[in-house]
Design a protein that fits this description.
GMP Synthetase, Chain A, domain 3; about 35% helix; 6-stranded mixed β-sheet; Rossmann fold; 19 strands; disordered C terminus; about 450 residues; disordered N terminus
Length: about 450
Amino acid sequence: MVVERSARGSAILRPIIAIVGRPNVGKSTLFNRLVGQRRAIVRDVPGVTRDRLYGQVAFERWQATVIDTGGFDPSSEEPLIEGVRRQVLTAVEEADLVLYVVDARAGVTALDAEIARVLRRSERPVVLAANKVDAGGQESVLAELYGLGFGEPVPVSAEHGRGVAELLEVLRARTPAASAPVVPSGVVHLAVIGRPNVGKSSLVNRMIGAERVLVHEAPGTTRDSVDTAFERDGRPYVLVDTAGIRRKGKVSEALEKLAVVMALRSLERCQVALLVLDASEGLTAQDAHIGGYAHEAGRAVVIVVNKWDLVPHGMVRKAEVVEQLRERLPFLDYAPVCFTSATLGDGVPDLFDTVDQVAAEAQRRLPAGDVTETLRRAIERRPISVRGEPLTLGSASQVSVAPPTFALRVNRPDEVHFSYERYLVRSLRLAFGLTGSPIRLSLRRAPTTRARRGARR
């Protein structure tokens, strides 16, 4: 079971369904069909899905969590395939029900039979889906599938949607009913972003204390955005491990292009973005581009200098690294910097403390009177004239959080230079902190004296 929250805020416990099968039988296509959106990357080559990918399926009033897994090969000893196998077995262990997908057109292969033996040993209930039954009259090919030992196969065409409703009815009948446990509130959603091979997946596994996502030394191992719910010291988090983002000119393969889109989409779903850098390589232009994505998305940011253990002792001080980051990433001057070693676990407790602080600051609401007074003093310290008229502030108030956004009523809203806006932002930050969050200003025209008199009448 997995804990979720309903639209009314109450907690519900949804059954978990793991989609399992050998490579290239259409598992990810079926996953996308079940969740109703393109969450998994689909391509007509085996081995595209490597990590476990979670999604929600709803059928009438029934809901469940489904897990898309990589192509399962129980016998392969190739390191990457072995990592995929561990991910699949973990998904099966988590699941209340296994949806075993086979290619009806190919019949039962030796690998299908071997996977069936593994699933029988797991003692999990199994629903057998015969995929790629694209038209009526093909059901005769299903007879061979009874030999797998999971009863009557359900014919479907994930590509065209044929038989999916009937499959959902079977899944609903075979899964336990949802219940309503008590779960903690205040979940912090994190997105781990960065270019390939900076240690994002290793950091994720260190943060949650288990191999939740596949870790491999080859760049680009992670392709899908993988959501992980976990707790630390009683505090709930949801963590997203994303594909490494490369410069557009270097993203030529279709798979990588889709992975970049999904990584950027993860920023839309998070509260705090962890921008992971490689301490052994130093800051690159691509690191700056990726940090810019998070800034433009309005997300709170923590800069994580990973692989700090690879920097020779005494070669460079942390203060010098921070100074360099401030110089080369001036638009992220509000982001705190943490130094970690994902392999050793160094700095991870401090990272969590920083994440908690940043998440809380992003949700702060400031009294309108305090904001107005702070900005008026800032304008008095550094007055400016706009077209010969002194800039005046009528009032200021916070209109939203995450990011903190403030509406300023001024006499010349369309003619204030962006450099002066940055000065006002710095004044707010010096007064109130708001560490880790970008601050947005919305300059609006203050009502004229005549308009104010008319309103009083």
